[in-house]
Amino acid sequence: xxxxxxxxxxxxxxxxxxxxxxxxxxxxxxxxxxxxxxxxxxxxxxxxxxxxxxxxxxxxxxxxxxxxxxxxxxxxxxxxxxxxxxxxxxxxxxxxxxxxxxxxxxxxxxxxxxxxxxxxxxxxxxxxxxxxxxxxxxxxxxxxxxxxxxxxxxxxxxxxxxxxxxxxxxxxxxxxxxxxxxxxxxxxxxxxxxxxxxxxxxxxxxxxxxxxxxxxxxxxxxxxxxxxxxxxxxxxxxxxxxxxxxxxxxxxxxxxxxxxxxxxxxxxxxxxxxxxxxxxxxxxxxxxxxxxxxxxxxxxxxxxxxxxxxxxxxxxxxxxxxxxxxxxxxxxxxxxxxxxxxxxxxxxxxxxxxxxxxxxxxxxxxxxxxxxxxxxxxxxxxxxxxxxxxxxxxxxxxxxxxxxxxxxxxxxxxxxxxxxxxxxxxxxxxxxxxxxxxxxxxxxxxxxxxxxxxxxxxxxxxxxxxx
Length: 467
What we know:
single chain; 467 residues; alpha/beta; Rossmann fold; pyruvate-formate lyase- activating enzyme; CATH 2.40.50.140; 13 helices; 37% helix
């Protein structure tokens, strides 16, 4: 793995701008206004990457559509974290052979984390000849040049080498949401959790300069964005590679000084790097949401060590105690993996007991999915899928009970919420802690922070009325 970080030069980015103009000229000569479809799988980082892909496509003269049918270029931005996601992508890629048959000039690209796996690239080369281009996350900034080469030569293009992780500032961004925005503050990961493919496909940690992140956030806030999420595989390790004495808490504090009416969120936090300093910054600013996503993955120390997580149960529980001491009303969410290779029934019980001890507002739960090339994929795994499913069901039942109880505690209280859309007859909104609220009201409220009194609750959402 190439561990060197490359900062893409302004000259190199200007070449890509020129490539965008050449693509415009290409379609103009044909008298065609092309359209593009970008389909995103996986995490918020992929969503942020897709916003840049759409930005480059619009710069190249493409309109955006919400279907692959009739699109002149289709881009699948993929996830490799779980096997199910990969299989779904392969199924959708296979189905595109029919849309391309109906629309022969259609160009199909696959990018994202799956494109960082050599075995996936080989399969695409051999078994999916209708795929015109593949590029991994390190080459995203070069997409206009890859697309231009494909259009003008008719040949397939592959940009999938083990390149250095890169940072490219100034790529155009097309955000689909006018209220909520993703801002990547860093890329890659140094943690190498034994089950995770991300460091192998996204490279090592590399932080953007604080002034670049702050400038992007300022532009969004001044542009009317109300809910901004700072992204990184491990935001808590931000700045360690810069060597300038700025950590994530410092960055968050500086962004929160920007005037405006907005909330800041962030994900994901790794427990090994979470600090009381961060909690103090969160508690001290009305602009920072009192919400923390702190993945624990397992409640058993032996399993945590096998996962290479670099903390134990006691440290994790102490971090939760510190967070709640600083912010008593904080909303806590987490990730948990069921059925890690070698996990026993007794060790799974430790996970259930941790969930009971913490009392999460919500969990993102997964049954372990082996990822080829990771250390965990080589471990013996004697527990049957049937037994893992039974564990998973018990975990979900436990968390659903806790979530329902936590939501019942909202009833009768009034919260400031951001109205973000409509679902049928009701408006939808989010509390500062990210809880979904439904209530009746006019469309004019969309985009505003308003007070809502909670009148009822379910396991997954809240019901309210305007105050």
